[in-house]
Design goal:
The structure is a homodimer. The first copy, chain A, is an alpha/beta fold. The first copy, chain A, has 2 domains: 276 residues, Divalent-metal-dependent TIM barrel enzymes (TIM Barrel, Alpha-Beta Barrel); 319 residues, 2,3-Dihydroxybiphenyl 1,2-Dioxygenase, domain 1 (Roll). Chain A is 34% helix and 25% strand. Chains A, B: One of its GO terms (biological process) is 3,4-dihydroxybenzoate biosynthetic process.
Chain lengths: 629, 629
Amino acid sequence: MRTSIATVCLSGTLEEKMRACAAAGFDGIEIFEQDLLVSPHSPEDIRALAASLGLSLDLYQPFRDFEGVSEDLLEANLYRAEAKFSLMNRLGADTMLVCSNVATASIDDDGVAASQLRRLGEVAAGYGIRLAYEALAWGRYVNDYEHAQRIVDLADHPNVGTCLDSFHILSRGADPSGIEKIPAEKIFFVQLADAPELSLDVLSWSRHYRVFPGEGAFDLTAFMVHLVRSGYNGPVSLEVFNDVFRQTSEDRTAVDAMRSLIWLEERTSVRLAEQNQLSGNDAGSRRYPMDLATLPAVAEPTGFNFAEVLAEDPGDVEGMLFQLGFSCVGTHRTKPVRLWSAGGARVIINQQQARGLAPAISALGLDVQDPPAAASRAVQLKAQPVSRRSQADEAVLQAVSAPDSTEIFLCEATGDGTVAWAEEFGSDGVVEGEPLITHIDHINLSQPWQHFDEAVLFYESTLSLVPRASQEVPSPMGLVRSQVMCSSDGAVRLALNIAPMALEQSGSHGGPEYPQHVAFGCSDVVALARQARQRGLDFLPVPDNYYEDLQARFRLDAALLENLQSLNLLYDRDEDGEFLHFYTATVGNVFFEVVERRSRYDGYGAPNAPVRLASQYQRVRSGSRDGAS
Amino acid sequence: MRTSIATVCLSGTLEEKMRACAAAGFDGIEIFEQDLLVSPHSPEDIRALAASLGLSLDLYQPFRDFEGVSEDLLEANLYRAEAKFSLMNRLGADTMLVCSNVATASIDDDGVAASQLRRLGEVAAGYGIRLAYEALAWGRYVNDYEHAQRIVDLADHPNVGTCLDSFHILSRGADPSGIEKIPAEKIFFVQLADAPELSLDVLSWSRHYRVFPGEGAFDLTAFMVHLVRSGYNGPVSLEVFNDVFRQTSEDRTAVDAMRSLIWLEERTSVRLAEQNQLSGNDAGSRRYPMDLATLPAVAEPTGFNFAEVLAEDPGDVEGMLFQLGFSCVGTHRTKPVRLWSAGGARVIINQQQARGLAPAISALGLDVQDPPAAASRAVQLKAQPVSRRSQADEAVLQAVSAPDSTEIFLCEATGDGTVAWAEEFGSDGVVEGEPLITHIDHINLSQPWQHFDEAVLFYESTLSLVPRASQEVPSPMGLVRSQVMCSSDGAVRLALNIAPMALEQSGSHGGPEYPQHVAFGCSDVVALARQARQRGLDFLPVPDNYYEDLQARFRLDAALLENLQSLNLLYDRDEDGEFLHFYTATVGNVFFEVVERRSRYDGYGAPNAPVRLASQYQRVRSGSRDGAS
């Protein structure tokens, strides 16, 4: 599959954009006219740069408001077009996007539109230019791809074809299966964009909120299947107008974009094979012109292997782990790294001498069936491999860096509760009794606002975690957006949080960062909280007002309410079961949670999140945040 | 008019919110339940704090999903309500907001809803509580205020009345004139919110985009006129859910909120008087229970008096002024401050010894008829007065600080081209010939994203500038939002720009700030540009590609195009006329523009803004931004 991307997707100058596209591995680009127009480089310079970067110039766009106009205006439009054709000859671009008329069309007649397009096609032919006519979703008379296709058919000129744009088609709820009916040679270009579900006017939705495939709500795999079946074999190009991508690093956005296409390509290949199988065709028996690459197939992760906390002084964090019932079961034989465990939950404490580093979650390990295959897949999806210094006889750990810089280790799932790398840790600790904690239930990672969509796609494509519904949680510093990503059986649960920008900015100025946490699952949270209190754990306090409201909402048994209140436990209930949980104080940028899921409760106590955030805010304000005591 | 505000409008803890409301001058507050629920302070503590701050607790809210339910659920809801009534007694709040049922209503029958509300009213009466029933715009069966009123009438209980919320009424396009038909004693509470025009689903619009009156598109003055005519005399309370306000300083947001009510109160008073006059009533002959305060009436400003640039080393800025044809006409007799002028344009260069300050626009002067009255009005609208050290015999200048910290001086309009304060400057410069520059055409100020709505309201309420349509301009660092604020005849034009957040963040980290500029009007921009080039002005370069596109779009006369291109002039044309302009290099955070408006062109060359932004970005990238040479 040939990959391409419109320069408007990225920030920076045209030159910076082109370098970023080449570095991310795109085969070609669409030149967005505005980017050329503001560039100090001549068309010849841009052509030479593209050649030196190995990028083809697949499309020049947009040419607006051409057809369906009076003769006067048509003459001016042809003059304007010819100037652009001559420019395109200098650039070395041979396909121009012609958008259906929005502003100046006055004649609602397919015959007139077609004959005007044919005239444009005749002029274009003299320059060796092909015209790809696209129905904008908000075109005045033409806003549907099948309508555009009828006009192209009427125009009946070899230099006039169609451009299909997934946003314009899917945003209007049109059925993309009609794509299969278009002759492949008349599909001159294809643009892809995904978008979140928003009940916003389609123009604003298109101009500000498009995202890369897999980051939104459209079924782009189905779209691609129709496209492949049509016999199309030209570039598949991203055209994403997004306010955030426009203002973040072009290098990073280009990688995110490329990842989306690699993943979409694989999913399309898989979906096609499934459908061929369903319809009784052998997957190999039906060949399409478009060649689809695949990735190593890997099973989804089966659990958390460990969480790692990095700190200069991890004393307070280790103290909290002890209070929660963890035992230090070993020290790395060569590094100042300790392994704490309780039941199936493992926390690695990585002490760093330099840097004055406040404790923070730095890595997490996931159990996977085939770590090298999983790592290879992630790297093919443009994840950055992580290299940690290791001695020759240490276990080779496969790891990649997530968009928020958390390191994700892909560990071998053993099934017997042991871990392959444990032998590097001596056994200097004795585990007392049966711990109440059983496993890591979920890990909550804060995300920079600029990289949220990228993170969702990263976790979904590389780790097969599926996004659940997102939530917005009020805090004293603004709304926190929370997006859970889950494996299908819930064994791996990540909660990605975006903190309010003001909070993030205060963090970058030396104020509080938005803290992250590890939540441990346990079999009896009341007993565990009692034990932790005896060991002196600093619980995050819960206001009395909360318990009054809880009682008004749930009419709890008096003994349960008394237990909850005396132990700073939070409570939630839904039709599936009950949820009891508590939080520790925050140390540096990390805190812990302990949860007990009763019956089939599958949530995270969302109604209680504002209570936690407010209580943490109170602690920061009163300056006691950094002390666990 | 009694003023109130819901705690949900502000960031911070309940205590911080209350202190901010009191400091801004509110008479009372609505306690938003969530704010109390997450507070470590008891209801009794909050009551005592309110009393000590002089705030009444006007409303407790929200009570959700009560009416139209099965008997079982009704019983649970009454239990829940009674717990809240008892809490309200402890708080000392006597009115509760009951929102129309969204989630649990199963009986679409006004008789059932009314009888259930009557039962709630009977229980509430035992606690001395009044219930204000409100139709949410997305209520399941009740989503219109007149429908809610019919149910209140049917309930027919003295403790059951109505709550009117401008958002819920106006967002659905309902006619607010029906308010006048509601008996005043049945209107238990009134909530106000404005909102921008958005074609978004009403729930998202309400939860994220509400703004304070005057910051959006609703006609809240008309709403208020109906309310006053109904005979209502209770609190007028702000209830604004806004993602930005939630994350910015509560003190500042509370002042912004109070300004909106003071201004709305005045406008309501003026509109009522106008309408009474139209209908033949004398303004004084009709009295309403609600007492409306007014402000000093002032005429709109008639022009720019000056712009001030502050700098440690203003040499490059003064060099550019000279190159543009300005003359230094005086030095302040006691301060290192110089006055430069050209035609009716004046620029004050204020040299500051300390601080390593890069040149920036620090103040602007506006010509007004009655400076003391204008300043008094601004201060009554909560603008911060500016105090500059001045000697006893210096002119007393009236000034206030705008939300972006620019100081706005209110100067006496003399009409003869002189200024009252000029005598403080000696006359050590000689003006050569007739300058081509005639006046300050507009000033472009960058705004922090957190304070944009506040800024629009500030300039509209204190300076009578009216917002024109806003625009979004693509730049290599993201979209720049631009909002022009104008006096009615265009003599004063401010362009407020919000830079992309990433750019702003880079600025706060020592990278480039988003620069501001002063645009000078001139009678012959081609002649001026030639003269400036002779004097060595560093023009902002304009790419050749731009001129090719210009030619394709406008088919300009070859001589004009040659003039434009050789002088780095930009061009625009619309049905009203033509616009020619050029930009200087940026020095520190300031640059200049020279514009020539031909015929009745009234815009700002919006299609050229991306060219400027890209060219400035190129200069920053290539590191030559700080040198004017």
